[in-house]
């Protein structure tokens, strides 16, 4: 509906039967329920852009909204909790009328604040009306230990009282906090356990009675607001807690999760990662997207990574962006088109991975870079099996066993690299499994060939190092003898394991 056709005064609003009926009887939770029912009947997507929760989280949110409940999303970092809360605005009306100039967006038919009541009593049908878009009806607060009751609920404003000549107990001297300013909308608190216990107590009246009281004065305001929260189980057990009376007043506790399948993870990363790089023609092979995603899946299973902290979905998103950037940088140096990332670009994106992992003691001993390299190699091996499981690669291995080596220089044009790869017997014949066809551009063939060679390295059929590139496994082992520092670290780790077993009354076998 165009903005010019909306009523601009209380009189015009009252003469519009559609708005009059809704404003007199419907609360925010009624509004969300009604719009959700309409979406479900028309089979529209309830939360566009939220992938992987269709059969788990979203049905529980739908039930909570249909029940007109306040709810909390409980999950580890990077599980789209904040995004879901912000997406709830789609269940609100496109436009909402309120008394123009009101700090708490008063309903013209049921004004709460003294200023609006006095204004309507004075001007009647001439009272000006303003309109609020659905996105402006969402108020979010990140819970931190320094949040005060005044921040959330409000306080008395002595300056306002002095300027207006009002008594301090007058409602006209109130400075409203975030929650009253979210009246007739959604109020979200992220990381609820970080909110101090006495501040959580201040939410009791809002959730149970639907009103607020400021500074002990008998000012009761029956706010119309839907409250939603998010929390991280790590915070809930380590840094703070949700006090029991508040938990009791939260209608539903909905647990989020990471993508359950590789395909879901790939879809989320493809949706969120910045892949369009202006005029550059960029092509991301499916197998490479899967490798990037598999790194996160492997990290969530690895015992060297702290599972309590979780592995955020932001890891594959930022990794894919760095992979594309490294490929773009190589393309600018060599002139190759299209820009086509390789597995080596995943190793170059390690800074986007190491910062997003919390390591256990064993991982700290081995070092973040070593752990991440192992994760990438494991990921390549698992994705390799999706395409080449059961494929005979003896001819390729024999070429390397006879002394062949190949180094894929990043500064070398793809055409020159392809010329070297053609000398490896049987390699290019296997690439159609990756969708590579005869006559494809050199960057596409080189990327697929490198992936296959990396897969053989992951399965210990070949070896690879920075100095000599790909080689036979035995030759690679001779070049990669562990350093004295590595041996010392491994001995220290074994001593730590032995001490831990001893404390438990067991021993090393």
Please describe the topology of this protein:
Blueprint lengths: L9 H5 L2 H9 L2 H14 L15 H10 L4 E4 L6 H7 L7 E5 L14 H10 L5 E5 L4 E5 L6 H4 L1 E3 L1 H7 L9 E3 L1 H4 L3 E6 L6 H5 L2 H5 L2 E2 L8 E2 L2 E7 L1 H6 L5 H6 L2 E4 L6 H11 L13 H16 L12 H21 L8 H6 L2 H4 L6 H6 L1 H21 L5 H8 L12 H8 L20 H17 L3 E4 L3 E4 H7 L4 H20 L6
Parallel strand pairs: 1-10, 1-11, 4-7, 7-10
Antiparallel strand pairs: 2-3, 5-6, 8-9, 12-13
Helix pairs in contact: 14-15, 14-16, 15-16, 15-20, 20-23, 22-23
Summarize the structure in words.
- The protein is α/β, with parallel strands linked by helices and 509 residues long.
- The chain has two domains: 3-255, Rossmann fold (3-Layer(aba) Sandwich), CATH 3.40.50.300; 265-479, no CATH class.
- It contains 25 helices and 13 strands.
- The protein has helices spanning 10-14, 17-25, 28-41, 57-66, 81-87, 114-123, 149-152, 158-164, 178-181, 197-201, 204-208, 233-238, 244-249, 262-272, 286-301, 314-334, 343-348, 351-354, 361-366, 368-388, 394-401, 414-421, 442-458, 473-479, 484-503; strands at 71-74, 95-99, 129-133, 138-142, 154-156, 174-176, 185-190, 211-212, 221-222, 225-231, 252-255, 462-465, 469-472.
- The chain has a five-stranded parallel sheet. Strands 2-3 form a two-stranded antiparallel ribbon. Strands 5-6 form a two-stranded antiparallel ribbon.
- A hairpin with a 3-residue loop joins strand 12 and strand 13 (469-472).
- Helix 15 (286-301) crosses helix 16, helix 20 crosses helix 23 and helix 22 (414-421) packs across helix 23.
- It is elongated and about 95 Å long.
- 35% of the residues are buried.
